[in-house]
Q: What sequence folds into this?
């Protein structure tokens, strides 16, 4: 089973008027990270809301010279194709990706991926009445989040991978294995660094 732990950062909260600026995904096959990942910074062709910048720390100056979404849309779709997406608060990320794809006349995610699993909905069922943000879940499940000073798509994917495995089977071993030969492959998890309406059912 191929899964992608996915996260995005944006210029603001409304996909109608705001844009994606960072997309990250970690590939997991049979509950093991393969070392294959996608990590892109994207120029939004608009300003970044101050409130959003305070959360993720990405300024427009940092995105100077980065590709616009049109230049990387195919790469993103190909990476996600036929996978199950594991997303924390899936409606937000899917809403932005669908809007960006739609501007280019490309299909929505429901025709690209096999399904979407929302870990917020999963956590609400497991821990009713308790906080279900990523920080709270890391604390509850004993996931080390000391690297997370600001929100960032790649570091949040790393943390969400551990949280997801912890919520679904209590598994915290994220050995990076090559999907085809079982040998160590790619970068180890700790080596990664960073400088709404949906037409399909989100699995809860």
A:
């Amino acid at each position: 089973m191929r899964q992608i732990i996915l996260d995005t950062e944006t210029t603001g909260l409304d996909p109608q008027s705001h844009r994606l600026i960072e997309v990250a995904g970690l590939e997991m096959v049979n509950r093991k990270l393969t070392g294959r990942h996608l990590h892109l910074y994207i120029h939004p062709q608009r300003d970044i809301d101050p409130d959003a910048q305070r959360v993720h720390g990405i300024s427009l100056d940092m995105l100077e010279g980065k590709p616009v979404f049109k230049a990387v849309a195919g790469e993103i779709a190909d990476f996600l194709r036929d996978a199950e997406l594991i997303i924390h608060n899936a409606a937000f990320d899917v809403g932005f990706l669908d809007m960006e794809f739609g501007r280019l006349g490309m299909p929505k995610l429901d025709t690209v991926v096999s399904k979407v699993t929302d870990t917020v909905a999963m956590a609400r069922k497991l821990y009713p009445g308790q906080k279900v943000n990523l920080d709270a879940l890391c604390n509850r499940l004993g996931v080390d989040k000391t690297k997370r000073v600001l929100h960032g798509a790649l570091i949040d994917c790393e943390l969400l991978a551990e949280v997801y495995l912890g919520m679904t089977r209590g598994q915290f071993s994220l050995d990076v294995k090559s999907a085809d030969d079982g040998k160590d492959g790619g970068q180890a998890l700790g080596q990664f660094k960073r400088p709404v309406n949906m037409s399909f059912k989100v699995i809860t």
